[in-house]
């Protein structure tokens, strides 16, 4: 077990050089793909994704696994990686062919490249063992050793990159004080330097960690001690949550915005911490009997956590349908459920030693994760096909109204199929029978990124100000008790520099106007609240001072502090009233003093 890792000390000098060289070459070729001026058959739009995937995977696999250049197992492993990349990339490339904007392309490609990184990380122990031991059979001890070493290498390399660029930033800022900007352009405006130096740093990080095996072992032992102390705390939190839940009810869980992610974080932390402590407790139980029983109990309830996460995401799917993120989340939960059940079985079947079957369970489930990551990037499990088909089926069956169809999802998150769905909607007489809905669809089909509010808004403000004022009036929602504001208010809103009214024009956002008397003078002010899903809620107060409308107050708060659905419903219903402050300002003589009360608030 130890010899497998210690053998890296004998890494030939030529192999050490090639680790650095290949990583620098990776950075240089990545620069050429994204910023180079080469125009050839090798760098057409249809082949860019192949180069991106190959340059992401092959240099890293080479750097992590090379022992000797003449080793046929090294090139055999690289050939296997090439085959997997070509198969999966071909399908993903089909999903993004003919898309007409970068956000639509990235919505498919970025998750794919991320899944490749996870795939490589899980598969590396088998590739490394194949080269060192000349066999594919891997014991759990070897898997654990390589996974820990690789994880520490990744962390060390990222830290090295951050520190290096932090030093360069300090250098740039110091010379800026002398009005010298040469280093800013050299370090942060020179893409060739950025890509190649990052490749060099990646190579240095991997090479250093592969050679400093004693240091890596010391870091791993230190982390093991830390996790060994934290696992009982994590187990205690897991147990008290699961015992409290029956008294509160599942409704509280389903009402949360994203409980599945929190539940999966708990499952992931428990699984990771248990594996680290289990490796150190193979011979001697790591805890006293009461503590060990508490840890075992937390592992026994892990399937409940996975089941609750499955329940929570099923509610979201039932309400809003499938999206690529929900498909990925569902797959993660399924994998977590299998791991959870396996760990619960390990607790039940443990007799002589603590969690004895755990090694065999991990050795079975980890290759399953590799297979799943490959299948999710093939026609068999295609998140984009599943999402688009489900969204369109919900629309055609009447389960979702035409006005509530998520056009942003179809435009930017589902690639070629989403674009085809938008074209279908444009040809659907029922969908385009509504003029506003048709304009909304046309606007969405012309946008080039998901943050674009209105492609021609600036031009419209200059050429047709009346049109943009009318368009803003159509997008803003007046509360039930609020009458139409006067024209001067709309003109002020259109030209106000403090309020980004363009955000209200996005299809995914809603802006609601309420009238209320905030200073008890008998004259109504207007409260405009902007609600964006997953982002801060902002509200602005407008008052008429000296015959001129002004923005006199504002409030910002995260959506986690309120029930967003109830907040929006109350705004629409005009359920807004003033509230006197408990702590007042002061007046010294005739001079007013505004007092802020952070502790009282």
UniProtKB/TrEMBL annotation:
Query: Mind telling me what this protein is named?
Result: DUF4153 domain-containing protein
Q: Which Pfam families match?
A: DUF4153 (PF13687)
Q: Which residues form a coiled coil?
A: none
Q: Which organism is it from?
A: Limnobaculum zhutongyuii
Keywords, sorted A to Z: Membrane, Transmembrane, Transmembrane helix
Please give the superkingdom of this protein's source.
Bacteria
InterPro entries in the record: DUF4153
TM spans, by residue? Answer: 14-33, 48-67, 74-94, 109-127, 147-172, 192-209, 230-250, 256-278, 299-315, 327-348, 360-381
């Amino acid at each position: 077990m130890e010899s497998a890792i210690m053998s890296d000390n004998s890494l030939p000098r030529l192999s050490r050089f090639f680790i650095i060289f290949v990583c620098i070459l990776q950075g240089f070729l990545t620069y050429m793909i994204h910023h180079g001026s080469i125009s050839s058959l090798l760098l057409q739009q249809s082949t860019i994704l192949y180069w991106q995937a190959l340059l992401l995977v092959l240099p890293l696999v080479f750097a992590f696994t090379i022992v000797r250049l003449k080793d046929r197992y090294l090139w055999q492993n690289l050939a296997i990686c090439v085959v997997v990349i070509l198969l999966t990339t071909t399908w993903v490339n089909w999903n993004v062919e003919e898309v007409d904007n970068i956000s639509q392309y990235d919505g498919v490609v970025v998750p794919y490249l991320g899944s490749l990184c996870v795939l490589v990380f899980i598969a590396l122990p088998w590739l490394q063992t194949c080269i060192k031991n000349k066999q594919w059979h891997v014991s759990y001890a070897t898997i654990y050793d390589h996974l820990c070493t690789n994880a520490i290498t990744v962390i060390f390399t990222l830290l090295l990159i951050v520190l290096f660029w932090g030093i360069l930033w300090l250098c740039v800022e110091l010379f800026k004080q002398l009005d010298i900007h040469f280093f800013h352009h050299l370090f942060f405006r020179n893409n060739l330097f950025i890509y190649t130096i990052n490749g060099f740093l990646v190579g240095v990080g991997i090479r250093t960690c592969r050679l400093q095996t004693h240091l890596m072992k010391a870091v791993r032992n230190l982390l093991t001690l830390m996790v060994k102390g934290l696992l009982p705390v994590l187990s205690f939190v897991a147990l008290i949550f699961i015992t409290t839940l029956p008294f509160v009810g599942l409704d509280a869980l389903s009402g949360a915005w994203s409980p599945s992610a929190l539940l999966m974080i708990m499952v992931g932390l428990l699984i990771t911490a248990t594996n680290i402590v289990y490796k150190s407790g193979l011979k001697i139980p790591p805890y006293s009997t009461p503590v060990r029983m508490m840890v075992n109990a937390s592992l026994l309830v892990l399937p409940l956590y996975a089941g609750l996460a499955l329940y929570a995401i099923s509610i979201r799917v039932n309400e809003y349908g499938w999206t690529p993120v929900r498909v990925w989340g569902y797959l993660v939960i399924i994998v977590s459920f299998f791991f959870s059940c396996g760990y619960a079985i390990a607790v039940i079947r443990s007799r002589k030693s603590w969690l004895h079957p755990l090694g065999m369970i991990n050795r079975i489930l980890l290759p399953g994760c590799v297979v799943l990551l490959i299948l999710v990037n093939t026609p068999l499990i295609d998140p984009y096909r599943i999402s688009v088909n489900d969204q369109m089926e919900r629309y055609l069956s009447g389960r979702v109204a035409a006005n509530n169809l998520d056009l942003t999802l179809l435009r930017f998150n589902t690639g070629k199929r989403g674009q085809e769905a938008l074209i279908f909607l444009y040809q659907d007489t029922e969908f385009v029978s509504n003029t506003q809905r048709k304009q909304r669809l046309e606007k969405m089909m012309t946008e080039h990124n998901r943050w674009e509010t209105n492609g021609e808004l600036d031009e419209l403000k200059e050429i047709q100000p009346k049109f943009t004022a009318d368009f803003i009036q159509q997008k803003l929602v007046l509360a039930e008790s609020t009458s139409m504001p006067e024209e001067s208010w709309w003109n002020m809103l259109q030209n106000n520099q403090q309020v980004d009214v363009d955000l209200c024009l996005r299809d995914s956002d809603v802006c609601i106007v309420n009238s209320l008397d905030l200073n008890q003078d008998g004259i109504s002010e207007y409260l405009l609240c902007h609600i964006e899903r997953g982002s801060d809620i902002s509200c602005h107060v407008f008052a008429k001072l000296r015959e001129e409308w002004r923005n006199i107050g504002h409030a910002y708060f995260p959506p986690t502090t309120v029930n967003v659905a109830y907040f929006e419903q109350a705004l629409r219903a005009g359920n807004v009233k003033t509230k006197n402050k408990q702590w007042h300002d002061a007046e010294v003589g005739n001079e007013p003093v505004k007092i802020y009360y952070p502790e009282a608030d």
